[in-house]
């Protein structure tokens, strides 16, 4: 029995139209193409309903047209039903656009065939005017995103664009409206590029590289928009790459980048195990507090009378991530146009049995230029994605550095010569000036590193002049804020000279050396290098005997170094636990910094024993009860490790009154704190039941 393709097409159209009730349809990046397909489907449906059963429906020409059209409708439905938010929006929209264009053209061909077959239709066939149907289909918008992207890539290669208007238009067309969506797209495209390179598909890889560059420019444009909205320009190092807002709780991920805690947690909760900025795979989910950047920001805010936004309020707002385009208004206006147009179509088809009403105005016009390219079909077949899991401190400048980049470069060139001068006075002036230039300008840090200052500054760490040495180490600290400079500083052999300063320098030089070592240690391999080079003992000495600022810098550096397993034992053997327990006194203002180090050290046997022997348990219980949210979280994590290690420690924890604050923590703590508190309480119960059975 032959297939009735008119019946199949009608069924497919009904299935396609039923998608309008899908909950997430309006958030689909290709939603406007669904609306346009819906318009065409509503013109086709009444014609097909009247045609089924007639001899004309069995015409070979019409049957072939219906078959082709049925396949396009089914493919479109499948694409809309199976949209995944962590796939490439650009390629998804390009694929949808290609199918929508084929659906439109095939519909026109079918109506042309019906028009030519009109005289063969039954006399009682109730039909609209096929000429009017053709005009209605032609009026359905056919905006060419492919064409817009091609032009942008051509302009990009020619070095003349794209313009910000082009970027916004493309972003809106493919559903890249927020900073988060832009960053996710960059991650996905990077994976697709790797797949293309592995398959030696150079043309595809080159095309995707061009798209990645467009995405990068969208992010930069959005960052510029955000900066222009601020009353006071904010140093970009102080802003979270995800929220583009001043950070209040900056944390470091395994790639070495710093983010606002709640925003990077949200990112990882989506299953994105890749750094949004560098697109490197994240080797773990540990978030290291970046106390140095936090202090920079606090000092800058105080100097500029700026109050950073509450990240929790931002993350729970209707638009937690900055918007490239005003999506709500644009979507509403487009949907209003679509709804109005559909209503006209609906009313027109019901008004008359002879012809639907003709929409008098063209809703959207585009040039009819061909935009097809050979080989695009292979790009649309997306490979599976990787990196997705299943479910002291420098005070920022109060005086802004001004001047053109060329004048800064000229000054830096001169300073590079002065740093190498045999004259102490010249070296003193040069290091002081580099310190000022590198203090609060990302561009200056890049220029200073580019002209070779790092090697000269590293050599000056051995200077016998106290001021030159202190300024040199502070310059390196400032330069290390730039992520690319971290590797340059390490490669210049700076670790051992920094340790020299840590042992022999002035108080200020020691503090800034500790802070620099922390900054360098955010690169995973540097944790091993710094530990093996002998930095831990002088850091522990600074922790115990330095000024308060030095103690804070040392604690921060020791925490980051102790993330590396081999360094934990070195930190414990150097006597850090005794000093850390002493600094649990709330009067020192270091409880949160100290607790996070103790929680790290408590993961090894030697650390558990040392914390117990040094009297740390009562203070950890106190931190669970009275500490900050983050302090309570880390204190409960440390106590869980201690209790699971030793029944003796478990009994001490219970005797110290830990149960009431732990119960409270299960209700009010952070997600991790609740988990640790619940596990501790379960462990207490299990221990009690075990004791009763033994008794």
TrEMBL record:
The keyword Metal-binding does not apply. Pfam families: ARM_PUB, PUB2_N, U-box. One of its GO terms (biological process) is protein ubiquitination. Keywords: Repeat, Transferase, Ubl conjugation pathway. Residues 233-307 form the U-box domain. It catalyses: S-ubiquitinyl-[E2 ubiquitin-conjugating enzyme]-L-cysteine + [acceptor protein]-L-lysine = [E2 ubiquitin-conjugating enzyme]-L-cysteine + N(6)-ubiquitinyl-[acceptor protein]-L-lysine. The keyword Signal does not apply. GO terms for molecular function: ubiquitin protein ligase activity. Pathway: Protein modification; protein ubiquitination. It comes from the Eukaryota. SMART domains: ARM, Ubox. Its EC number is 2.3.2.27. ARM repeats lie at residues 452-494, 493-535, 534-576, 575-616. Functions as an E3 ubiquitin ligase. This is RING-type E3 ubiquitin transferase. It comes from Noccaea caerulescens (Alpine penny-cress). The lineage of its organism: Eukaryota, Viridiplantae, Streptophyta, Embryophyta, Tracheophyta.
């Amino acid at each position: 029995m032959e297939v009735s393709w008119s019946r199949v097409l009608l069924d497919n159209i009904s299935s396609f139209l039923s998608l309008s009730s899908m909950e997430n349809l309006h958030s689909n990046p290709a939603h406007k193409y669904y609306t346009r397909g819906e318009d065409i489907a509503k013109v086709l449906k009444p014609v097909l309903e009247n045609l089924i059963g007639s001899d004309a429906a069995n015409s070979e020409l019409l049957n072939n047209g219906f078959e082709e059209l049925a396949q396009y409708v089914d493919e479109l439905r499948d694409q809309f039903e199976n949209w995944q938010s962590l796939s490439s929006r650009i390629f998804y929209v390009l694929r949808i656009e290609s199918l929508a264009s084929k659906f439109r053209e095939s519909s026109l061909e079918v109506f042309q065939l019906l028009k030519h077959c009109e005289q063969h239709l039954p006399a009682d066939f109730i039909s609209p005017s096929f000429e009017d149907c053709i005009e209605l289909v032609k009026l359905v918008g056919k905006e060419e995103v492919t064409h817009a992207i091609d032009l942008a890539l051509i302009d990009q290669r020619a070095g003349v664009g794209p313009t910000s208007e082009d970027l916004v238009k493309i972003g809106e067309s493919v559903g890249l409206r927020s900073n988060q969506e832009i960053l996710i797209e960059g991650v996905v495209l990077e994976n697709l590029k790797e797949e293309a390179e592995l398959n030696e598909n150079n043309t595809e890889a080159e095309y995707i590289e061009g798209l990645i560059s467009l995405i990068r420019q969208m992010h930069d444009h959005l960052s510029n928009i955000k900066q222009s909205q601020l009353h006071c320009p904010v140093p970009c190092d102080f802003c979270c790459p995800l929220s583009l807002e001043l950070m209040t709780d900056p944390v470091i991920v395994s790639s070495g980048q710093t983010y606002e805690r709640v925003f990077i947690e949200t990112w990882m909760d989506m299953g994105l195990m890749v750094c949004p900025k560098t697109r490197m795979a994240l080797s773990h989910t540990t978030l290291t507090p970046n106390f140095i950047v936090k202090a920079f920001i606090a000092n800058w805010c105080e100097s500029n009378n700026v109050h950073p936004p509450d990240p929790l309020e931002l993350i729970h707002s209707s638009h937690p991530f900055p918007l490239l385009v005003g999506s709500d208004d644009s979507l509403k206006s487009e949907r209003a146009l679509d709804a109005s147009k559909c209503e006209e179509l609906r009313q027109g088809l019901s008004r008359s049995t002879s012809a639907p009403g003709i929409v008098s105005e063209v809703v959207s016009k585009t040039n009819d230029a061909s935009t097809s390219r050979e080989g695009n079909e292979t790009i649309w077949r997306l490979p599976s994605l990787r990196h997705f899991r299943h479910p002291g401190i420098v005070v920022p400048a109060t005086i802004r550095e001004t001047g053109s980049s060329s004048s800064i470069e000229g000054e830096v060139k001169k300073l590079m010569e002065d740093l190498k001068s045999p004259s102490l006075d010249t070296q003193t002036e040069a290091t002081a000036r580099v310190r000022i230039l590198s203090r609060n300008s990302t561009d200056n840090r890049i220029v200073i590193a580019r002209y070779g200052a790092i090697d000269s500054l590293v050599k000056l760490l051995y200077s016998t002049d106290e001021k030159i040495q202190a300024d040199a180490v502070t310059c390196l600290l400032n330069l290390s804020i730039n992520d690319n400079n971290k590797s340059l500083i390490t490669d210049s052999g700076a670790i051992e000279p920094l340790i020299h300063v840590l042992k022999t320098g002035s108080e200020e030089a020691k503090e800034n050396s500790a802070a620099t070592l922390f900054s360098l240690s955010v690169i995973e391999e540097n944790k091993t290098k710094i530990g093996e080079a002998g930095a831990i003992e002088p850091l522990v000495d600074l922790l115990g005997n330095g000024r308060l600022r030095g103690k804070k810098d040392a604690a921060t550096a020791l925490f980051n170094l102790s993330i590396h397993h081999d360094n934990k034992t070195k930190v414990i053997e150097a006597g850090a636990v005794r000093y850390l327990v002493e600094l649990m006194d709330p009067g020192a203002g270091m409880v949160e910094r100290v607790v996070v180090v103790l929680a790290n050290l408590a993961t090894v046997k030697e650390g558990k024993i040392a914390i117990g022997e040094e009297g740390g348990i009562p203070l950890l219980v106190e931190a669970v009860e009275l500490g900050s949210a983050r302090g309570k979280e880390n204190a409960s994590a440390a106590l869980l490790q201690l209790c699971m290690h030793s029944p003796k420690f478990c009994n001490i924890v219970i005797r110290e009154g830990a149960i009431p604050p732990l119960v409270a923590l299960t209700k009010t703590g952070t997600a991790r704190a609740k988990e640790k508190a619940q596990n501790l309480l379960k462990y207490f119960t299990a221990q009690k039941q075990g004791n009763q059975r033994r008794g």
